Amino acid sequence: MQRSHLAARRLRVGCLALAAVGAIAMAGMPGSVGRAAAASRPAHSGNALYWGAWIGTQFTGTEAPWDMRAVSAFQRLVNGKGLSMIALSSPFEDCYRKPCTSYSFPAAQFQKIRNYGAIPFFNWGSNAAPIQPNKSRYALKQVIAGRYDSYIRTWASAAARWRHPFFLRFDWEMNGKWYPWGWGANGNGPRDFVLAWRHVHDIFKSAGASNATWVWCPNVDPGGVFGPLQAMYPGGAYVDWTCLDVYNRATPWLSFDALFRSTYDVVKALAPTKPMVLAEVATTGRGGSKPDWIHGLLTNLSRRYPNVRGILWFEKYASGFDWPIETSTASKRAFARAISSPMYVGSTFSSLPNGPVQPPR
Known about the structure:
eight-stranded parallel barrel; single chain; globular; alpha/beta; TIM Barrel
């Protein structure tokens, strides 16, 4: 991304705001691997999984990938295990300044991630920073009507020119009301999300951006209080990977299985052949054992949930919650020990070929 230091800082602030809103609102809630890398990987039981993190500012004052030293600092916490995905985000527009200005395709940041050996996992929201959940300018009907077509086409064309694969998680957690694109927010109707998703997807297709891997990502809903996922699924032709976000906020304390299983089953029924990624996962240490929660998640994930082929830890402090793994020595050790399994693939993807990202082997 070719932006001034101030603009880059505003983008990072926007990214933090997007993540914080989701963390507040949650209710309790590659192309193929190179042959040499695959051949050198030790045998393991269960499916191989990509793994990574959405890394905050606590290490260097600047989040990754703008400062890749943050990745190095996080990697040291896990005994040097390389990440295979690194998350970042931006909305459509920066409205901290007036008039609002558009965020461009972050080619420089994507390239840093690829040079490291990971796959960019980009969270892209059809809104502005700062977030205003009920701002009519960003209602889904505006996207459907073409208000942002020129911007989307420019962004998609730049993505196509970059030529390398990346995950694109567009308008995530749509079954809640805390984002402008959410179910029941901002005047959005039952079919608006599907129509907006397909509209943006079709622009990417026309721009030749086949390197974008489309990730459809609701929030887990163990209590059945959010919007019905069946009405918001764009269809198999428009989705490459499914996804879920899972937070244990200890209200009450719940196991990963209690939070995840029911929504996993719904998504699996909707898209039984699609690989799934957990784009935001974390637990607080209040009210229960954070090390045990982490251990149970990472050691049982592949066996209990075979559709899951990737996981990103939410490695940020947000809304007063202690999400990062380093909040206790025991939590850090539990994460490092579990992620050391060869089931979790490392940073071997600097030469990943163009095209939608396939599950690891």
